[in-house]
Amino acid sequence: MLHGEMADISQSIPGRQVRLNQLILGKSGGTSLNLQQVSRDSLLDALCALYDELNKESLRKDNKLISSFVDKYRGTLAELRQMRVNIKDFEMKKIIGQGHFGEVRVVREKSSGDVFAMKVLHKNETLSQSNAAFFAEERDIMANAASPWLTKLHHAFQDMQHLYLVMEFHPGGDLLALLEKHRDSILPPETAHFYLAELVEAIHSLHSMGYVHRDIKPDNILIDRIGHVKLADFGSASKLNAQKMVTSRMPVGTPDYIAPEVLIAMNSVPAATASYGVECDWWSLGIVAYEMFYGQMPFSDDRVVVTYNNIMNFKTSLHFPEEPSYPKETISLMKNLLCEATVRADHQALYQHPYFAGVDWPALRNKVPPYVPILKGEDDTSYFDEFEPEPSSPTLEIPKKEFSGKQLPFIGFTFSHPVDTPATR
């Protein structure tokens, strides 16, 4: 019987060890396990989180086993933290963005001299949200992005208080700043046409990854160093379920750009009825298009409640000014985006829309942009507003006499592109 049981084992001990090594190195090894959860970085995150949670005087004093663990791993953890990517690897330069999340800085990697944008998130702020998974969605999108239209992640790391996302730096500024450079914030028709075509591709690239952005607006549309569009800021993004929908009542987005179905979901009772799909991003693109053509937003009001009311009653509140005058194809584009979700144009309909007639979609990035930033160097921030550093935020509060678990949500956040190592002989 024992011999029969042994015969049922499909792999030897060395074979299973090879599979474990493959998992830690991010290779499937023929398993359905979540690779991110068992990667080298995730396991090291877990070890660091455990050590930090237990390294409290009260716990060490009251429990000899905990004290022994902390003493045993103190030197190891200090050395591991020096070897992993950390804030000391970067020279901090100007702040180019601020928000409730924290800030975005331009940084230079000290060893290579490469320039990046670094987004710093406060852990206590992410934990205070009713859905603290947003930071994970943002990290996953940029870590896995293969599209040239999406901002890519180079490193993600953390300390006790902060999360750090080290991303591509796009020195051309954002679309909002570009709009403001033009008279009445109106883009020339050919310029608007160029950026709208690129945005169709950028938004579709994100949808193809299985995510919806939920905060498409000029501030989150960056211009790279050669003038092409890069979609950014995925802090409000959500992964689509098997039905390609999002079920959430979470308030997201920016009032002027929110689709009516998202507003309905935010106020749905019960919560199970709060669902919508990628159509909400195409609505937001319609708002961006309107803004490009008219220098204003179609439903905006100083009072947010009136803005929301205008959005919900878009069939009567949507108007197109007589001046400036545009061809019927341009008006048709906006009408096909600012409409009911069930009939709203998707990427296939947009490819075939008369407004985009003649666009060579696969060759968009080969076309010379209407605006190419003139840069003084790799870390030139002249196309961004300047911000003053904000006062330090409150520290992440961890109870002194118990295992709080407040570091556990951040296990698996750390990320770096794999580095090839020489084969061992």
From TrEMBL:
Amino-acid positions noted as binding ATP in the UniProt annotation, renumbered to this chain: K119
Protein kinase domain location: 90-356
Range of residues in the leader sequence: none
Organism domain of life: Eukaryota
Tagged with keyword Glycosyltransferase: no
Catalyzed reactions: L-threonyl-[protein] + ATP = O-phospho-L-threonyl-[protein] + ADP + H(+); L-seryl-[protein] + ATP = O-phospho-L-seryl-[protein] + ADP + H(+)
Keyword ATP-binding: yes
Domain AGC-kinase C-terminal: 357-425
Keywords, alphabetical: ATP-binding, Kinase, Nucleotide-binding, Phosphoprotein, Serine/threonine-protein kinase, Transferase
Entries under InterPro entries matching the protein: AGC-kinase_C, Kinase-like_dom_sf, Pkinase_C, Prot_kinase_dom, Protein_kinase_ATP_BS, Rho-assoc_Ser/Thr_Kinase, Ser/Thr_kinase_AS
EC number(s) given by UniProt: 2.7.11.1
Coiled coil start-end: none
Family: Belongs to the protein kinase superfamily.
The name this protein goes by in its record: non-specific serine/threonine protein kinase
Organism: Cordylochernes scorpioides
